[in-house]
Amino acid sequence: MKPPRFDYVAPVDLDEALEVLADDSLETRPLAGGQSLVPMLNFRLAAPERLVDLNRIEELARVQRTADGGLRLGAMTRHSTLERDPLVAEGAALLAEAARFIAHPQIRSRGTVGGSVAHADPAAELPAVLLTLGARVHIARCAREGETGPRAERTLDLRELFLGPFFTALEPGEILTALEVPPPVAGEGSAFDEVARRRGDYAIVGVAARVRLDSDGLCREAAISLVNGGSTPCLMEEAAGALVGAEPTPDAIASAAAVCAKTSEPATDMHASKAYRRHLIRVLTGRVVSRAVGHAREGCHRR
Ligand SMILES: Cc1cc2nc3c(=O)[nH]c(=O)nc-3n(C[C@H](O)[C@H](O)[C@H](O)COP(=O)(O)OP(=O)(O)OC[C@H]3O[C@@H](n4cnc5c(N)ncnc54)[C@H](O)[C@@H]3O)c2cc1C
User: Fold this and answer.
1) For 213, which of 34, 57, 161, 165 is 20 to 30 Å away at the CA?
2) How far apart are CA 128 and CA 81, in angstroms?
């Protein structure tokens, strides 16, 4: 299939891109890596009248350490950059670990963090991992009359972004500009794993976990999120809460994994039933949380 006709603009400057998006005379969408949008155009699942290509905007592709030691990923950071960038390895190794599960190298060299988050596919790895890491999302639009400066910006907790399958709190005219991950804390450990029919396929189910242990070995903080565990990328707060305040023994981890499976709402589709997905969620949560605890105990503060 060929895409429907569209106008195409490729600005080098974010403000110019925001200006084009603010002009509502044509229905306009940002184009990032194109790894979801182009197939949607070709299958005629989307038919925007104009695309604003973000690929030439340098400020959107930067990976930076923030003043407080966190990690700022420009929206156009490629999946392949997550796999290789030393700042990502230091500040959020969980992202590098999970990025390797996304599709194939060709797709990872084009697909972007911002595109994956804006697309809000419950089957995508990065939204779930970024939720586990407590990420915040930076959003910009063209300033309106009476507002100072060329652009207006807002920041959301990533949890506030996902409203439904493929549906986010991004408003027309807005661009997701960056994702920010808080700095690593002593005693943290994290891990990711998923089950797919073949290497590179979308996951049937995936689990990301992060724990923080105190000096007595008690769990002070935990976050667990699921890939394909519900209709949106989701944090499993009850399951994580079951770990907090106690020693993460194998029994405690098994109980939290059971809560995770029970409170998940995966779909039944041609790839797997809801019951099978819940079984996988229980098994994977147990394994992933155990690995995260192991990393935290080794004192490598890996997250
Ligand atoms: C064969 C194949 C297999 C794949 N397997 C996986 C997989 O296993 N796991 C996985 O997670 N993904 C997978 N993907 C999808 C891939 O990861 C995409 O890169 C990702 O979903 C979208 O990122 P993108 O940069 O390509 O965005 P695009 O396709 O360019 O855009 C996606 C959507 O987000 C919007 N958008 C993009 N950037 C922004 C922005 N900065 N601000 C606002 N809106 C924006 C676009 O307008 C569009 O609606 C696969 C893709 C293919 C083709």
Assistant:
1) 161
2) 18
Q: Write out the residue limits of the CATH 3.30.390.50 domain(s) in the chain.
A: 188-297
Q: How many residues does the chain have?
A: 303
**Where along the chain do the CATH 3.30.465.10 domains lie?**
61-181
Task: Tell which one of 29, 41, 107 to mutate to probe ligand 1, the residue whose CB is within 8 A of the most ligand atoms.
Answer: 107
Look at residues 234, 71, 74, 238 and name the one whose alpha carbon lies nearest to residue 159.
Answer: 234
| Residue 194: partners with Cβ closer than 8 Å, 6 or more residues away | 101, 125, 203, 204, 205, 206, 207, 227, 284
The string of pLDDT tens digits covering residues 98-121 is 999 999 999 999 999 999 999 999
Test site for ligand 1: of 97, 109, 116, 205, most ligand atoms within 8 A of the Cβ: 116
- CATH 3.40.50.2000 assigned to domain 61-181? The reply is no
CATH level 3 topology of 188-297: Enolase-like; domain 1 (3.30.390)
Short-list 86, 128, 108, 156, CA closest to 228 = 128
Per-residue pLDDT band for 300 (boundaries 50, 70, 90) equals low
